[in-house]
């Protein structure tokens, strides 16, 4: 007999819809197989021919961590382009390289963890480089463009599956896994949720990753917002992937649950579908899931729900239909198109901040001095791939102006470190066989850092002159004449074995600590001091060496020398993305590091025609009064130097725009943990001071005129158009920005708010009409009295211009809406978190699964105000739902205390609520003021007649 071919199982049948195929596959998986799918590294199911699957491939501005790839500008640099078409093309290139790299290395995943859409609320946030903007509209526009590029445009099969990071209200690294962001309802709906929502609704998002922090007292990994908000925005199955180690944090650092079984069950029920924990070891997570099942905390149906979401992504990626997957044969990698795109993106990201007297662009015969710590660097960050090509500012200027017209001085101090024995630190020369060269002849940091086969430092009579690079805040690196950085390997010895500072724990940073008549040299990565022993220099707990620091040449001297000989000086300053502001580390100040300030002053004193180019992942507060010109760019990837040189030479007119406010002083900033952007007047939306440079700012080598502003309302939208004309003599891009402002708001509203923008290229004399369709919902705000969005009727100003402060056109429109209504306190009472104003209060979790309460900050006292509360014909009693211990004092319209509600449950848990009551007489519409005293939680206040 001829053997019959077994029938194709339905989950392999390409003709069936994905939902039916997933149903069939789920029915074939055993419980153990489904549990195994819940870990980041899901194993293969060989009996069904299902390969292993890994969630998570970093792809923030190129494929990261998997070796050589095209490196585009940092995310904040892509945000500075204000160009959604460009960013879509970057996402498309990144997704094609992801596919091409996976074809030769199956460790490369197609579930990409990017982009980061956390709003850049606070410029001292260490991960500023990973976000796009402080504005939710711009952030969502750029993020949507990037995800569309990552997803691809095939109607069925996705090229990659993007996961947005990090849900929600995550903007501090200090205590990031234990701090809680207190987010009032208006800030939640008008600010933090918006960037996620508009990107998810656009239809190119496969999932989200919860952040490490807590929001309103509850860890994001058990957030009810995943169910209440996120999953209501789309009909697609969204995959929620935990952040690394976060499931264990629920018990180990946050102490939110007593056992890991409880925590794992709670996260799964809240909506987490894939657990990133313990690296490749899935045994701990699977054991916790089994334990939760045995305790009745989970059912198999709960596990099915999570596995279904993961399978939905895998089906969309074409995993089960390789013969139909249009992306399966994608091999576009490091193509000329990708290289040109990297340069285009780097050029479009450059922001011209100042250009007094027209110093820029530089004349072709300019004799140029190039100085500064970043002048000959092409820095990578934690989420970069390995460079295939690189271009530093110095290299770009050599290429553009000719090496004979460009003179370089890095400006670092050249030092010797003398020991107490009278000898000097000596760096043994690397043998030819010891050096491992990468692309473009650079030392390969992946192969050099951490090496133990290179000789450690020793001491001798003459020593080695080292470049001491001061990055500010007492952090420095030491580099040998041949370009190697001093680094500490796992055995504790100090070697010259790194091409750049880097790594999760940077092993190339040190501090000089004054001690007696010299200095101790502390290695920051280990916390230990450098000591000198017979077998070499190492870090140790005991016997620290006392060094005398001998400065062979101050960096300022070299800078002044070359600056005096030049027509124009270019000072390239900024940050190393692995130092002083990065993941796990917030900055402490906006100030430019003191050493770089000294270099800038030295250049300026020697030559008044000094241009400052800041290459950084975040804003600085720089006194630019004496500077004729100033630029900023984020670290621009592989083409950074070429791009900057072309901008300086005028080959390209700059058109980048600031994606966040640059503040003039640290005093302008709120506390890093203050997330109330409305109450503390944060970002350009509410800031009432004078910024150093405003949101949306950026100059051009051309000039532009705006005119013919017209508006009309139709089909639920406001249609706005105006013309932009290039009145200059060079071809240039203009970024036209449209803002709105409520003229007569009854609650605090933004000073102005971006509703649309467009980047347009214009030849000299050319004009174009820009048209925008602004949905009327863009004028809504979250009405805490109503518990929903509402648009106030009345006048709204429309402002068109070149930045949030450079307004060229304005008009006023009258919009219909819903008139404000008093709070119906007799019917609904007052949800404690729905306040209009607060001081000294933070929002906390009402229960571990849902709801909000309020509590005095640090157990002291705080005040809440609720405007326009309607008591009707009168009330005689007030009740409060409270937990803990303390009092709630009730007053009306700022008058005397009329009632005191006492909570007395010192031994009860934080979620054990009871009702306190008191008599009160009130009628009509009044403002209610509550003063909270003591460590209590207030969930709700009610009134009755």
From TrEMBL:
Coiled coil: none annotated. PROSITE patterns: CBM6. Transmembrane segments: none annotated. Residues 828-944 form the CBM6 domain. It holds the Pfam family Glyco_hydro_3. Keywords: Hydrolase, Signal. One of its GO terms (molecular function) is carbohydrate binding. One of its GO terms (biological process) is xylan catabolic process. Belongs to the glycosyl hydrolase 3 family. Catalyzes the hydrolysis of a non-reducing terminal alpha-L-arabinopyranosidic linkage in ginsenoside Rb2 (alpha-L-arabinopyranosyl-(1->6)-alpha-D-glucopyranosyl) to release alpha-D-glucopyranosyl (Rd). It is not able to hydrolyze alpha-L-arabinofuranosyl-(1->6)-alpha-D-glucopyranosyl (Rc). This is Exo-alpha-(1->6)-L-arabinopyranosidase.
């Amino acid at each position: 007999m001829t053997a019959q071919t077994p029938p194709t199982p339905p989950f392999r049948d390409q003709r069936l819809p994905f939902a039916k195929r997933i149903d069939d596959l789920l029915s074939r998986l055993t419980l153990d197989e489904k549990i195994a799918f819940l870990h980041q590294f899901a194993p293969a199911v060989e009996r069904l021919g299902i390969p292993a699957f890994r969630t998570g491939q970093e792809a923030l501005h190129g494929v990261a961590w998997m070796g050589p790839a095209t490196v585009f500008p940092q995310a904040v640099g892509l945000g500075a382009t204000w160009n959604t078409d460009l960013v879509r093309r970057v996402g498309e290139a990144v997704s094609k390289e992801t596919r091409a790299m996976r074809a030769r290395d199956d460790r490369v995943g197609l579930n990409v963890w990017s982009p980061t859409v956390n709003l850049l609320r606070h410029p001292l946030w260490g991960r500023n480089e990973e976000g796009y903007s402080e504005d939710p509209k711009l952030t969502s526009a750029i993020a949507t463009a990037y995800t569309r590029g990552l997803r691809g445009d095939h109607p069925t099969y996705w090229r990659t599956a993007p996961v947005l990071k990090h849900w929600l209200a995550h903007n501090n690294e200090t205590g990031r896994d234990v701090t809680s962001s207190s987010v009032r309802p208006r800030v939640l709906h008008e600010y933090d949720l918006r960037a996620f929502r508009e990107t998810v609704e656009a239809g190119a998002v496969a999932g989200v990753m919860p952040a490490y922090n807590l929001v309103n007292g509850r860890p994001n990994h058990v957030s009810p917002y995943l169910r209440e908000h996120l999953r209501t925005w789309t009909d697609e199955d969204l995959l929620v992937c935990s952040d690394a180690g976060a499931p264990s944090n629920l018990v180990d650092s946050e102490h939110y649950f007593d056992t890991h079984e409880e925590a794992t069950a709670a996260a799964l029920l809240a909506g987490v579908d894939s657990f990133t924990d313990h690296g490749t070891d899935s045994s701990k997570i699977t054991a916790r899931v089994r334990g939760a099942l045995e305790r009745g905390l989970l059912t198999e149906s709960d596990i099915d729900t999570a596995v279904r979401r993961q399978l939905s992504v895998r089906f969309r990626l074409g995993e089960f239909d390789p013969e139909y997957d249009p992306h399966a044969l994608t091999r576009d990698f490091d193509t000329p198109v990708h290289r040109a795109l990297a340069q285009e993106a780097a050029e479009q990201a450059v922001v011209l901040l100042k250009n007094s007297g027209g110093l820029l662009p530089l004349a072709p015969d300019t004799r140029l001095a190039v100085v500064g710590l970043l002048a000959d660097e092409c820095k990578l960050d934690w989420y970069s791939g390995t460079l295939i090509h690189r271009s530093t500012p110095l290299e770009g200027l050599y290429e553009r102006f000719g090496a004979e017209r460009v003179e370089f001085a890095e400006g670092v101090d050249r030092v010797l470190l003398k020991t107490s024995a009278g000898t000097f630190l000596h760096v043994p020369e690397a043998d030819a066989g010891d050096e491992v060269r990468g692309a473009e002849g650079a030392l390969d940091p992946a192969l050099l850092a951490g090496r133990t086969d290179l000789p450690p430092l020793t001491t001798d009579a003459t020593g080695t002159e080292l470049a001491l690079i001061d990055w500010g805040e007492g952090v420095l690196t030491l580099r040998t004449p041949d370009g190697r950085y001093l680094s500490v390997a796992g055995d504790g010895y100090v070697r010259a074995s790194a091409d750049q500072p880097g790594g999760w724990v940077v092993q190339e940073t040190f501090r000089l600590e004054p001690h007696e008549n010299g200095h101790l040299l502390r290695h920051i990565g280990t916390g230990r001091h450098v000591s000198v022993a017979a077998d070499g220099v190492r870090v140790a707990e005991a016997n620290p060496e006392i060094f005398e620091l001998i400065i062979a040449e101050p960096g300022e001297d070299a800078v002044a020398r070359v600056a005096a000989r030049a027509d124009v000086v270019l000072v390239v300053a900024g940050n190393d993305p692995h130092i002083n502001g990065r993941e796990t580390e917030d900055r402490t100040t906006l100030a430019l590091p003191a050493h770089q300030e000294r270099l800038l002053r030295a250049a300026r004193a020697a030559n008044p025609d000094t241009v400052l180019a800041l290459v950084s992942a975040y804003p600085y507060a720089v006194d630019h009064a004496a500077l004729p010109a100033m630029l900023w760019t984020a670290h621009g990837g592989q083409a950074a130097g070429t791009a900057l040189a072309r901008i300086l030479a005028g080959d390209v007119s700059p058109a980048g725009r600031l994606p966040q406010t640059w503040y003039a002083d640290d005093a302008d900033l709120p506390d890093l943990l203050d997330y109330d952007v409305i109450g503390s007047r944060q970002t350009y939306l509410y800031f009432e001071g004078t910024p150093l440079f405003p949101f949306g700012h950026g100059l051009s080598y051309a000039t532009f005129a705006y005119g013919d502003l017209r508006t009309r309302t139709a089909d639920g939208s406001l249609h706005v158009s105006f013309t932009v004309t290039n009145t200059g003599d060079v071809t240039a891009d203009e970024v036209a920005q449209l803002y709105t402002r409520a003229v007569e708001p009854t609650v605090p509203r933004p000073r102005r708010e971006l509703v649309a923008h467009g980047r347009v290229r214009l030849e000299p004399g050319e004009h174009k009409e820009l048209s925008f369709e602004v949905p009327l919902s863009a004028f809504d705000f979250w009405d805490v009295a109503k518990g929903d969005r509402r648009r106030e009727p009345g006048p709204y100003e429309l402002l068109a211009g070149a930045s949030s402060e450079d307004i060229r056109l304005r008009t006023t429109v009258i919009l219909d809406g819903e008139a404000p209504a008093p709070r119906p306190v007799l019917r609904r009472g007052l949800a404690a978190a729905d306040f209009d104003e607060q001081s000294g209060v933070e929002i906390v979790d009402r229960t571990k699964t849902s709801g909000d309460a309020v509590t005095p900050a640090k157990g002291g006292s705080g005040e809440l105000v609720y405007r326009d509360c309607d008591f009707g014909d009168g009330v005689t009693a007030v009740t409060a739902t409270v937990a803990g211990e303390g009092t709630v004092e009730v007053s009306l319209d700022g008058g005397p205390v009329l009632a005191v509600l006492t909570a007395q449950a010192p031994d009860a848990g934080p979620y054990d609520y009871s009702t306190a009551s008191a008599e009160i007489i009130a009628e009509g519409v009044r403002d209610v003021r509550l003063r909270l005293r003591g460590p209590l939680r207030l969930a709700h206040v009610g009134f009755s007649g």
